[in-house]
């Protein structure tokens, strides 16, 4: 009930963004199940670059955008760090922020295979922060991920 009350107190612009983010999370989740990873990454990157060319303004602060994306990811079933980072890449681009998508694999070969995705803006990690990110070997380009995975 408290969460619902908080939602109704949001400005209408943020309510709209919340619902849009829910849709994007679900959409990317489906795409990741039905489309090769390399194609999804290429489309997201291309779309974000096109959006940034026509969106010079920064209407909502990055931390606020991240909070909305994290909140929306709690209600979309099976949301992963990758679908969250892809959604973030698109949403941040729509608000004029040029972010960097990171995908890495856990370096410890004695444990089961682990991969993680996160999104950064400059030196700040906006989505997917983990205290052990240094243990992940990041791919030099997201487009090489399909070859390794």
From TrEMBL:
<dbReference type="InterPro" id="IPR032708">
    <property type="entry name" value="McjB_C"/>
</dbReference>
<dbReference type="InterPro" id="IPR053521">
    <property type="entry name" value="McjB-like"/>
</dbReference>
<protein>
    <submittedName>
        <fullName>Lasso peptide biosynthesis B2 protein</fullName>
    </submittedName>
</protein>
<feature type="domain" description="Microcin J25-processing protein McjB C-terminal">
    <location>
        <begin position="36"/>
        <end position="139"/>
    </location>
</feature>
<dbReference type="Pfam" id="PF13471">
    <property type="entry name" value="Transglut_core3"/>
</dbReference>
């Amino acid at each position: 009930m408290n969460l619902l009350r908080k939602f109704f107190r949001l400005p209408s612009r943020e309510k709209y963004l919340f619902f849009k983010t829910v849709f994007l999370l679900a959409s990317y989740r489906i795409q990741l199940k039905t489309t090769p990873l390399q194609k999804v990454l290429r489309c997201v990157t291309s779309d974000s670059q096109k959006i940034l060319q026509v969106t010079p303004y920064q209407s909502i602060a990055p931390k606020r955008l991240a909070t909305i994306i994290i909140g929306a990811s709690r209600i979309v079933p099976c949301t992963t760090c990758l679908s969250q980072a892809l959604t973030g890449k698109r949403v941040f681009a729509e608000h004029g922020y040029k972010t960097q998508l990171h995908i890495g694999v856990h370096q410890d070969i004695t444990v089961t295979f682990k991969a993680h995705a996160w999104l950064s803006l400059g030196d700040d990690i906006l989505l997917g922060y983990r205290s052990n990110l240094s243990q992940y070997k990041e791919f030099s380009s997201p487009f090489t991920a399909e070859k390794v995975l």
